[in-house]
Design brief:
By secondary structure, this protein is mostly helical. The protein has 3 domains: 120 residues, Potassium Channel Kv1.1, Chain A (2-Layer Sandwich); 135 residues, Four Helix Bundle (Hemerythrin (Met), subunit A) (Up-down Bundle); 102 residues, Helix Hairpins. It has 20 helices and 4 strands. The protein has a 4-stranded mixed β-sheet with strand order 2-1-4-3. Helix 7 packs across helix 11 and helix 8 runs antiparallel to helix 11. It is flat and about 95 Å long. It is found in: Cell membrane; Cytoplasm.
Length: 433
């Protein structure tokens, strides 16, 4: 700790005192407590706690003492449960204050929290990042050097990252959505047979980025859309707080995959020539052009539904893996049995559709998912009985992990909805001002 004296510090939470050494605070599991280790002045300390006693080196937190006691049990033993006879949402609010999340709760308590949040449609926002000044301390004292620049960068970042944070952010999001829609319409229309140049060029010729194709309306529209997406991506990279974290985000990777093929195709045309063997084949360029379909995923920045889907898949990857394991195990069993019953027992009534186990796997997949294309079906009585068992087993196996995924989806939706409502309130205040 860079502030205060003495070998130990005292945390006073609602009248209950806890004593710790300075080194323990550095890697303390509670984010708010660990922030005390980096405080340089009394003003920094007061942004973390409610009051401070310099003489006794004691930090005061006006929070629920019994709830903090259960949180300390988690710090010591690794298990976090709700306080008896205390509202789940109130305890969750205490968790958010100290820097914990719902995933730190034991599984039974997570279920209770999900049910309670589903009933009340409530979600508590996490505390502001450590680098942001507290609202109560605004206007007090002199602003540090560079504060105006950081404030401007933060405003720019929210304008590009949070579509509901301001009027400018909403206008920018609307323009970006229009560009995505226009680019998708052009991409879909370019695959129509009627979409031909006056000289009726072939598909391979249409995939080239020549000087003539750029001057066509579709080429001009595509160049404008690519220019907008490129400029947007560059600005968002410049104003981002953590450049490495920005590059690792899935949506930013998708943006890069959608923009890069255009420039690769142009460079290939410049360096290989318009009539090279690679250009005549056209396969590589058509694949690169079709990667523009990833632009549709850019809409996830502006719609809560797509954001909820992505966040749910991220948090439920274990359940998704478990579902895939169920399907793979059942597919191996039923495909082997169906191949044996349809092609391996009776040589006189061989079903050629089940000539091998890999071929039977396709029938198992469409049967377990109750799609049933009808392109292949069993013809023997034992095979049909096995098919019925396969369908019923598929329904049961697919339904088992759905409960876990549903609760996670509800929690993610409430979280994103609350965040959107918070920015909407700031947007309303901006209109009033």
């Amino acid at each position: 700790m860079n502030f205060g004296r003495g070998p130990s510090v005292v945390l006073n939470v609602g009248g209950t005192r806890y004593s710790f050494s300075r080194e323990v605070l550095k890697d303390f599991p509670l984010r708010r407590v660990s922030r005390l280790h980096g405080c340089l002045s009394e003003q920094d300390v007061l942004e973390v706690c409610d009051d401070y006693d310099r003489e006794r080196n004691e930090y005061f937190f006006d929070r629920h003492s019994e709830a903090f006691g259960f949180i300390m049990l988690y710090v010591r033993h690794g298990h976090l449960r709700f306080v008896p006879h205390m509202c789940e949402l109130s305890f969750y609010n205490e968790m958010i204050y100290w820097g914990l999340e719902g995933s730190h709760l034991d599984y039974c308590c997570q279920r209770r929290l999900d049910d309670r949040m589903s009933e009340t449609c409530t979600y508590y926002a996490a505390e502001e990042p450590p680098g942001e000044p507290a609202r109560g301390s605004e206007g007090k004292g002199r602003r540090p050097p560079g504060a105006e620049g950081r404030k401007w960068l933060e405003r720019m970042r929210r304008t590009f990252e949070e579509p509901t944070s301001s009027v400018a952010a909403q206008v920018l999001a609307t323009v970006s959505i229009l560009f995505v829609i226009v680019s998708m319409v052009v991409l879909c229309a370019s695959t129509l047979p009627e979409w031909r140049a006056p000289e009726n060029r072939s598909v391979e010729e249409q995939s080239r980025y020549t000087a003539e194709s750029v001057r066509e309306p579709s080429g001009i529209i595509e160049a404008i859309c690519i220019g907008w997406f490129t400029a947007e991506c560059i600005v968002r990279f410049i104003v981002s707080k953590n450049k490495c974290e920005f590059v690792r985000r899935p949506l930013n990777i998708i943006d890069l995959l959608a923009i890069t093929p255009y420039y690769i195709s142009v460079l290939m045309t410049v360096f290989t020539g318009e009539n090279s063997q690679l250009q005549r084949a056209g396969v590589t360029l058509r694949v690169l052009r079709m990667m523009r379909i990833f632009w549709v995923i850019k809409l996830a920045r502006h719609f809560i539904g797509l954001q909820t889907l992505g966040l749910t898949l991220k948090r439920c990857y274990r359940e998704m893996v478990m579902l895939l394991v169920f399907i793979c195990v059942a597919m191996a069993i039923f495909s082997a049995l169906s191949q044996l019953l349809e092609n391996g027992l009776d040589l006189g009534t061989k079903n050629k559709d089940y000539a091998s186990i890999p071929a039977a796997c396709w029938w198992v997949i469409i049967s377990m998912t109750t799609v049933g294309y009808g392109d292949m079906c069993p013809i023997t009585v034992p095979g049909r009985i096995l098919g019925g068992i396969c369908v019923v087993s598929g329904i049961v196996l697919l339904a088992l992990p759905i409960t876990f995924i549903y609760h996670s989806f509800v929690q993610c939706y409430h979280e994103l909805k609350f965040r959107s409502a918070r920015y909407s309130r700031s947007l309303s205040a901006e209109f009033l001002n």
